[in-house]
Amino acid sequence: MLFLIIAIGVLLIIIATSKFKVHPFLSLLLGTLFVGFASGMSFDLIVESMNTGFGNLMMSIGLVIVFGTIIGVILEKAGAAYRMAEVVLRIVGPKHPQLAMSIIGFIVSIPVFCDSGFIILNSLRKALSKRAKVSMASMSVALATGLYATHTLVPPTPGPIAAAGNIGADAYLGTVIFIGLIVAVPATFVGYLWSIKVATKIEVPEDVTAAGEEFDYDKVVASFGKMPSTFSAFLPILLPIVLIGLGSIIAVLGVEGGFANFLMFLGKPVIALLIGVVAALPLLPAFNEETLTGWMGQALKDAAPILLITGVGGSFGTVIRNSGVEDIIQGWDISGIFTGAMFLLVPFLLAAALKTAQGSSTTSLVITSSLIAPMLPIMGIEGAIPLALVVMAVGAGAMTVSHVNDSYFWVVAQFTGMKVNDAYKAQTMATLLQGIVTIIVTMILWAILV
């Protein structure tokens, strides 16, 4: 009966968000209250669980999400994302435009939301497509899948951070980033292959209007205005990742001493992301009200709904744990059913069902990680690498699949000019393959590393 109550709670969240278009924060709150009351929890315990779950998650990752969002907004508005794109284009060369788009998306979406990343790089996508005389749809799918891979797998994107926090992996964020970058490579590559094998056959209106047009790529790049240097553009992304990675390595090696402790301090995610914000400040065109108040205010507005969704997701998970389900799960002997890497299919399938039903990858990551958290101690899953791979399994499900109830689907379709049936063939099928490849790679890594 308790599991039926939890299932109904999840179903309420899905129906509220997908059918009645209720904001995910309110939907999660509704599901949390339903599970609390229906499971027979006392009023005081419901309130305590909601406050504790929300507060604990905000305490561990709240500022990390805010700082990551600030970095993303600065990179977007200061033209640093364009600079990174131009560097990648120079390295890859004009003969592989889809590959260049995939790599650009892979890099930009580490701090920038995938839908925002697609919008800000859309003019560059069109410019390169016309310059290389390749299909607009193929360039769109290459960019969209590259953005999507790191969006669902690599912190400091809020979804993976929230999942890590829910399952107790926030202390191993460096490992989650490292594993996420590895797993995101094949996910991006399969999107690239789909773009050149399938999406190239899809024609959109821009392909017809572009035919015979003279197009000056350099003028489009110049229209972005003065862009920052390569070093200053990449620094706000790479510096926090390097610091978190160093801190994780020192912790694993057990090195002690004043300098080691200082490096571990710098490697704390909240400190590393704050240093990333400082590194992004020189990108500001001026230190005035528009940038210091306007841009920062925009970043806080972007972070607010993610913070609320993530926080109430923590409340949902805590209410579930305190409802008595943890005691029931502890009495199960599921080790014979889900052995080793096979357990990863549980979070994958659950996240995929939630993603497909309600559309939001972030919501899927938050809810799924909350649901599976009580199972992990029973399965003996603890430590940096196993928990990081669980986050990857959840992320794999959260990218399976993007279709009409996902805002990102419409961003890609509308900005490309694809018909809905073509967008299903190009974008939805690509994300399905990405999810399948990601869970397979994750299970292989589990077999090798755990």
Automatic annotation (TrEMBL):
Q: Which residues cross the membrane?
A: 26-47, 54-75, 99-122, 134-151, 171-194, 233-253, 265-287, 299-320, 332-354, 375-399, 428-449
- Tell me the first and last residues of the signal peptide: none
Going by the UniProt record, its keywords in alphabetical order are: Membrane, Transmembrane, Transmembrane helix
Keyword check for Secreted, yes or no.
Answer: no
- One of its Pfam families is GntP_permease
Protein name as it appears in the record: GntP family permease
The scientific name of the source species is: Shouchella hunanensis
